[in-house]
């Protein structure tokens, strides 16, 4: 909750040496990262878009929290090198959590596979076989739609 205009937080400008409660909070938080944190899950998390991320502090594609998409790591292991800047990994079955190496295909950004998939999706959408959920940002089909 933000402070009202004209009010300052009680600890503004204080250091842990200035106030015993700040020192106490600081000491409690020490060494609470990674394995020492109660919420540690082994360095593997899932994000809001449905992908697995792996903690990897030394990877060139790490995010600001030092996590890398698991499918990128698996594809790179198969290739024996880092992905090039114009390469990305496609999940063949569309399941973002299925990072089995035989479900991953490395594409260049101008690769025809994604263009083909997009065109197929557009054609199916125009024919009423699939619909698009704008809230979820994904295509879907119901059994009634498929029977048509």
Walk me through the structure.
The longest helix is centred in the C-terminal third of the chain and has 15 residues, at 112-126. A hairpin with a 4-residue loop joins strand 6 and strand 7 (138-140). With 148 residues, the chain is α+β, with helices and mostly antiparallel strands. It is 27% helix and 18% strand. It is built from four helices and seven strands; from the N terminus they run αβββαββαββα. The strands form three sheets. A three-stranded antiparallel sheet has the order 1-2-3. The protein has helices spanning 20-29, 70-79, 112-126, 143-147; strands spanning 44-46, 52-55, 67-69, 87-91, 104-108, 131-133, 138-140. The termini are far apart. The model has no long low-confidence stretch (mean pLDDT 81). The protein has three domains: 11-39, no CATH class; 41-109, no CATH class; 111-148, no CATH class.
Core attributes:
single chain; 148 residues; alpha+beta; two-stranded antiparallel sheet; 7 strands; extended
SSE diagram, text form:
Layout (H helix, E strand, L loop, with lengths): L19 H10 L14 E3 L5 E4 L11 E3 H10 L7 E5 L12 E5 L3 H15 L4 E3 L4 E3 L2 H5 L1
Antiparallel strand pairs: 1-2, 2-3, 4-5, 6-7
């Amino acid at each position: 909750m933000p402070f009202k205009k004209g009010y300052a937080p009680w600890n503004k400008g204080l250091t842990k040496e200035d106030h015993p409660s700040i020192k106490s909070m600081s000491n409690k938080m020490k060494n609470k990262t990674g394995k020492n944190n109660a919420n540690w899950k082994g360095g593997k998390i899932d994000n809001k878009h449905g992908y697995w991320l792996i903690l990897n502090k030394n990877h060139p594609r790490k995010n600001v929290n030092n996590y890398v998409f698991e499918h990128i790591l698996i594809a790179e292991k198969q290739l024996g090198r880092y992905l090039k800047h114009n390469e990305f990994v496609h999940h063949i079955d569309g399941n973002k959590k299925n990072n089995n190496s035989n479900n991953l295909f490395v594409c260049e950004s101008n690769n025809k596979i994604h263009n083909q998939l997009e065109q197929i999706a557009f054609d199916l959408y125009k024919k009423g076989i699939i619909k698009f959920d704008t809230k979820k940002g994904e295509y879907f089909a119901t059994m009634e739609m498929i029977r048509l």
